[in-house]
Design the sequence.
């Protein structure tokens, strides 16, 4: 290597070193504000009669594509009992982070003692909906969403004390759970699952949007 080549190498290495030091001292990514993402989960219940009117049938799946005449669609939408919203939790979370909303309540009930008398107790239980969401925004502006949704409900008690109107025995809390990883276009809802119940069909819709 001649003298000129050595000088060129030294200049190039010096430039690379200077760029490396400048990059290390400039935390651009750490100062860039994180984008907020609004995550919505909606449980929508459609009666079997409504599905029949739309000529869809109960065999509809979350991935099904259906075509409904506009006149029939307007007729069904005009019926206030056609579609029922069961739950609609919303959560704002920073992209790249995990957010959670829970609903726990203190529930009072009676427990029967050995002598036949009752003891009042209070327990904290999950009631309503729980939502956990972890969105990531990719380079194309789409939202990759890991989410878990749980809905808790207590059936009517078998026995109720007439004096206190409290249930006898610890309430049995039932729940349904849906968790998935979705790739969403901002603002465009997607059906993440379906739940068949007597005389109706429930769908889990998920929507995410990037907040400015």
Sequence:
């Amino acid at each position: 290597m001649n003298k000129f080549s050595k000088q060129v190498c030294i200049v190039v290495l010096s430039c690379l070193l200077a760029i490396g030091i400048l990059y290390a001292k400039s935390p651009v990514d750490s100062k860039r504000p994180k984008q907020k993402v609004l995550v919505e989960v909606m449980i929508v219940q459609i009666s079997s009669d409504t599905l029949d009117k739309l000529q869809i049938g109960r065999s509809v799946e979350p991935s099904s594509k259906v075509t409904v005449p506009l006149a029939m669609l307007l007729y069904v939408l005009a019926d206030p009992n056609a579609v029922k919203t069961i739950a609609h939790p919303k959560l704002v979370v920073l992209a790249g982070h995990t957010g959670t909303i829970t609903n726990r309540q203190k529930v009072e009930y009676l427990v029967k003692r050995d002598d036949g008398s009752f003891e009042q107790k209070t327990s904290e239980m999950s009631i309503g909906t729980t939502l956990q969401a972890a969105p990531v925004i990719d380079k194309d502006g789409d939202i990759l969403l890991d989410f878990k949704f749980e809905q808790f409900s207590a059936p009517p008690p078998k026995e109720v004390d007439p004096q206190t109107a409290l249930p006898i025995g610890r309430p049995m809390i039932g729940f349904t759970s849906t968790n998935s990883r979705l790739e969403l276009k901002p603002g465009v809802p997607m059906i993440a699952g379906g739940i068949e119940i007597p005389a109706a069909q429930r769908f889990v819709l998920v929507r995410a949007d990037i907040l400015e």
About this structure: DSSP finds four helices and eleven strands in the chain. The longest helix spans residues 3-24. The two ends are 56 Å apart (CA to CA).
